[in-house]
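Human: For the file, kindly provide a plain-text protein record giving the amino acid sequence and the backbone structure tokens, at your earliest convenience.
Assistant:
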Amino acid sequence: MSLSKFESMLKTNNVYFFDSVEFEEIIQYYFDNGKHSLAKKAIKLGLEQHPTSVNLKLLKVELFIFEDKLQRAVSLLLELEAIDPNNSEIFIQRAMIYSKSNKHKEAIDALQKTLSFIEEPIDIWSMIGMEYLYLDDFENARLNFANCIDVDYEDYSSLYNVVYCFDMENKHEEAVLYLNKYIDKNPFCEVAWHQLGRQYFVLNMFTEALTSFDYSVIIDESFIGGYLEKAKTLEELKRYEEAIENYIITLELDDPTAFAYVRIGECYEKISQTDTAIKYYKKAVHEDPLLDKAWLLLTHLYQQEKDYQKALYYITKALHIDEGNSLYLRTYADINVKLNLFEEAVKAFQKCIELEDVSLEIYVGLADVLLFLGDFNDALQALIKAKNIYKQFAEIEYRLCGLFMLLYDEKNSLLHFKNGLAIDADYRTIVKELYPTVFEHPTVQKIIANYLKATE
């Protein structure tokens, strides 16, 4: 009634009288609904009618804070403190100013002063807990949120925050103890069972985790988070068919998600139902075409089936989403090698190196492809760069042997062959595979014979 009367007044320019409490309710309504310009008008009119109202002035402080007029807010608070020094709201607003200025310790001090003025401190403990979170002081944050729960066992926001603090401290065993004590007092809380299951999961106690998630969905049959975590736990227990059932329940309870489709596909892949896995991966990319993981999973399945044309199609989709992903580029290069598209493979390997993926596999793959293209000098340069990073690796030494011999540098070729023998003699077969003419070179054969004789 007061709200409609106030808005009517604004439209007609008539002036109506409201008591201060009515103004407070109107202003709070506008704050809660994000209508700050109307709140500002209500504060102005309210203070014109009730110029001494502390509560209206406190709402004006709140408006100043929202508008980042912090100095004006501080000045007004000082005036109000002189009038009403024991008003807890003054310290709360001061704490908000400190917090907004990243002075979280000062905010905590201001909030703690209010505890002596108020009868129900739960909101203050929650605010203090948040300030400690800003300081990464998880222990003190946790203690304050725990105070909230001691007063209100259904304060699930504080419960989540307590568990978050345990997580950040890596105190999962302590979290289990806390949650079990909580459940003893509030056994029908699906949130607590769900959080307990998460802690058991982190501790690799999957049987206990499964029991906890079971209880969470028994208490609330529509608890999607419980079914998701239960399904993930069943995967860890290698009970893939049951995991699939639980993922499907989440699809029935809410709109389908690409995440659930991917997990179902992975479960089917693990029980060797490849066609069904592909079906669910395709559902995932239909649901979210930007989910590069699903494109990559499709790529890997078609690689396993040696259907490299389809694999190339799907890895290209992933690269369109994240062209700077070195893993995707490696996969793209490998597939192009299988399809004898060596120039494309070279570009992909070189792009990996540009992205600072300097793993041995990249350099070796690049060198081998350049060898097939007959670009011996470029292949040699790639291996020399690799050797600057990887000092004693047979994969490099034997390839250097082959390339130096092809480039008519027999001295360096034989030196690197001997280096390779000293590192891993069995791996010398790579020379036979990649450089058969080099392997059959009389001097190389003599070095092998001498080595075998010496090791008999």
Q: What stands out?
A: The two ends are 103 Å apart (CA to CA). The first helix runs from residue 2 to 12. The mean pLDDT is 91. The chain has 28 helices and no strands.
